[in-house]
Every structure is written in structure tokens, then in C-alpha cells.
Amino acid sequence: MLDKDTLKEVIAAALAHGGDFADVYVEYKKVTGIGCEDGKIERIHSGIESGAGIRVLSGDHTSYAYTNDLSREGLLEAARIVSHAVAGQGGDVSFELRRVESPVSFTVLQRPDQVSTEDKVKAVKAADEAARAVDKEKIKQVMVGYGDVVQHVIVANSDGDYVEDERVRTRLMVQAVATEGSVIQTGFEAVGGHGGFELLERNNPREVGVAAARRAVQMLAAKPAPAGKMPVVLAGEAGGTMVHEACGHGLEADLVQKGLSVYAGKKGQQVAAECVTVVDDATLPERYGSYSFDDEGVPSRKVVLIENGILKDFMYDRLTAKRDGVEPNGHGRRESYQHKPIPRMGNTYIAPGKDDPQQIIRETGNGLLVKKMGGGQVNTTTGDFVFDVAEGYLIENGEVGPMVRGATLTGNGPEVLRIIEAVGGDLGFTIGTCGKDGQGVPVSDAQPTIRIKELVVGGTGHGE
């Protein structure tokens, strides 16, 4: 990679015309992607990407340039471009780079860049074959996607921080389509984590394929979901899509400071039920949204955002933290060296409570049990959302009843947090790629089994 003397020279050049702070983000990334459709390996992609982003902060303004020329002259040219975008008077820039040690480390047992493409293809084919074998007549289409990345990062800045980090992530997803007559249903299952190919030893590809296909086939026989207002139980296995989308983005400091969050000006106030605690913790082992340092070189940490219903904190990068006069808390993330960092989630979850998940269902009476969330839409300014239910069941007299299809959940994220009545002691994770400002970053979301007093359930059946 790059030596410290070169990095110091580049940072000094970036501050030649002024500025409060400058940093360099250097990235070297190896990726592999495999796609399977119609029982055939359709694509195998592997490649190497490298480059650097150089940033200067001056007041509330950011100047940013990037280059894939990692030579000394290439980096200095990018630094000069950034420096000219800063209006001011340059001064002496004197600092020494000192290495910052990581507070956490992640174990990788099988580096994916040392696993043969043939072994990766075998895993993809195993998932495909297992999914098709669930029901050879009804399963009409199976799509399997595998991906891994080994990313080396260096971050150096004018405060003297020098960080080296390696991120290794692996994921596998299966989507199955089942048909019967005119009915078409889809099942989806995905696993992934901050770790190597050992992920597929803990999550057998065949079992991932079976889970996706079985869900699609079961939905064919499901009855139309009723429509109306009713209690909703979100099972832990449903994952944290709700908390991520409906309130997580509203806790990112840039949206708060722009007045685009319902949580603006509410720190210290009660914004959720007392049984609700919301956390973002990028230090969790093996989770897809974990990292030792964020993309500004700030060590990751557990951040309690809402504690017993009280709004405690936001997710900050360096720029938003400076505006609020607080320390950055490890949430400055970027998709690649081509992007400037912005506040982003890592592993966001509602903390487990003390209630028994089965007791939560028994005490619900009649309502809807959601075991798998689908896609949806969210207005991050208001928190209003509409989510599809990928797997849902009626709750009848405290018992899990028939499966239903076509259900949607409509509500408001901050309001949902206020009307959560019970929080289970379990915790289930899902993975995804979170999009914001044209950037995608890997995240995990989680929640225990929770009961929401009342949501508007949309469906094609008749409500009570």
C-alpha cells in the first residue's frame, strides 16, 4: 500500500490553501460474484479495485476528490485539486502519523480469496438443486447469488491518526418462484456476515435453498390476508427491517441536522415505549454490518440510540459530530473510495426484552404474526411506511393459525415504537445493502419478537 511519508505529504498538499481537517482513504478490494439462474451458472465475476479519496473539511463545507492512480504524483494531483476548492489561507501543517489500534477484531477461518472458484460454484449449485427438489412441479424458477469481498483500507488524517483495517464479507442469497394455476409466489432467503467461507459451513447452502423454496410453495396454499386494523406480532426471525427503515435512518445525524428527521430536537425526550431500547453496534462478531473502524478511521463502538424509550444519541460521522460539538461515534461510512463518508447504520437492532415469545403470541388473542418481512417504502422525513409481508400467519385465540398471503403493513415508525406492548428475549438478524445518497453499504438489522398494539394490515381478504 502506501508509506506514511507519502500520506503526510498528500495531506499537507490538501491543506495548502486552508481547511480545518484533511484525510486520505485508500482502498484495495478483491471481489467475487457468482450468479445461477435456470439451473445454470450464468456469470462468474471477479476483480480487483483500488484507489484513494482525499477530503478537506472547511467549516461546514466538504471538498472531495478521488483517483485510482495510487502513485505519489497521482495522489498529490488529487490533493491539489481538493486544496484549490477550499477558500482560505494555507499555513504550516505539522503532524506525525501514529497508528490507532482496533478495539475489536474479527476472526476469519477461511479467507474467500483462498477458496477456489470451483468450491464456490459447488455451493451455489447445491443451493439451486436443493431449492428445486422441494417441489419439482411447482418451483418454476430459482436464482442463487454468491458474493465475497476482501477489502484492505488505510485511513490517515491531519489529526495524526493512521489506521489499517481489513474487512472480509461473504454472503449467499436464494430466490425461488413457485406457481400453481394462476397463482405465483416468491420465497427469499439470505445469509451473510463479516467473515470468510466458513459462513457456508454454519449455514448449509442446501438449507438456504430449501428455506426459500419452501416459503414460496407454502404461500401458494395460503389464504388471502384480511384487511383492517389489528395487533401485529413481528417474530424475531422476521429480522429488523422495521427498525432499520422506519426509524433507523431518522437517527442518522445528517438527516437530523437538515430537519429531515422526526427525531430532530428530541434528545432526552421519550420517543418510544419504556420497553424499547434501540442500539447500533458495529462491533458484533460475524455480523454483516460489523467493522473495526468506520471509513473515517474512527473505532467502532456500541451506541445506544434509544434507552428505555428515551432518545439518547444519534449516529455521527466527523462532520456532523463537529456541528453538534460531540465526538464522532464510528458511523462515517462510504461505499468505496469514490464516495465521501456520511452517517450510516452498521448493525441496528431493538434490544431483547424479558417477555417469552410464545407468551406474546398467546396473549395477543387475534391478530397477524409476521415471520418474514418483504420489501417496502418509507418516507424518512415522517417515518410513514408500507411493508410487504413475505411470510405471515393469522393469530386466532392466541394460537398460530393459517398462513396468509398478500398482506401489507402500513404505519408510522416513530409511532410504532411508542405502541410496542411486549418485547421478547430472542433476537433475529437479517442482512442487506442499505442505500442512501446513491451509496450502498452492508448492514444487519435485528429485533426480538415484539407485539405492536395496532397496525393497518392491507390484504385482499375480509377483516373482522
Question: How does the SSE layout of this entry go?
Answer:
Elements: H1 4-14, E1 21-37, E2 40-58, E3 61-67, H2 72-84, E4 98-99, H3 117-133, E5 139-157, E6 161-180, E7 183-194, H4 199-202, H5 205-220, E8 223-224, E9 228-234, H6 241-248, H7 253-257, E10 278-281, E11 302-307, E12 310-311, H8 318-324, E13 332-333, E14 342-343, E15 347-350, H9 357-362, E16 367-378, E17 384-396, E18 399-405, E19 408-412, H10 413-418, E20 420-423, E21 428-436, E22 439-447, E23 450-458
Parallel strand pairs: 4-6, 8-18, 9-16, 15-22
Antiparallel strand pairs: 1-2, 1-5, 2-3, 5-6, 6-7, 9-23, 10-11, 10-15, 11-12, 13-14, 16-17, 17-18, 17-19, 19-23, 20-23, 21-22
Question: Can you characterise this structure?
Answer:
The protein is α+β, with helices and mostly antiparallel strands. It folds into two domains: 4-221, PmbA/TldD superfamily (PmbA/TldD fold); 224-458, no CATH class. Helices cover 20% and strands 42% of the residues. It is built from ten helices and 23 strands. The strands form four sheets. Strands 1, 2, 3, 4, 5, 6 and 7 form a seven-stranded mixed beta sheet that branches. A six-stranded mixed beta sheet has the order 12-11-10-15-22-21, with helices on one face. A five-stranded mixed beta barrel has the order 9-16-17-19-23. The longest helix has 17 residues, at 117-133. The model has no long low-confidence stretch (mean pLDDT 95). Residues 111-220 form the Metalloprotease TldD/E central domain. It holds the Pfam family PmbA_TldD_1st. InterPro entries: Metalloprtase-TldD/E_C (IPR045569), Metalloprtase-TldD/E_cen_dom (IPR045570), Metalloprtase-TldD/E_N (IPR002510), Peptidase_U62_metallo (IPR051463), TldD (IPR025502), TldD/PmbA_N (IPR035068), TldD/PmbA_sf (IPR036059).
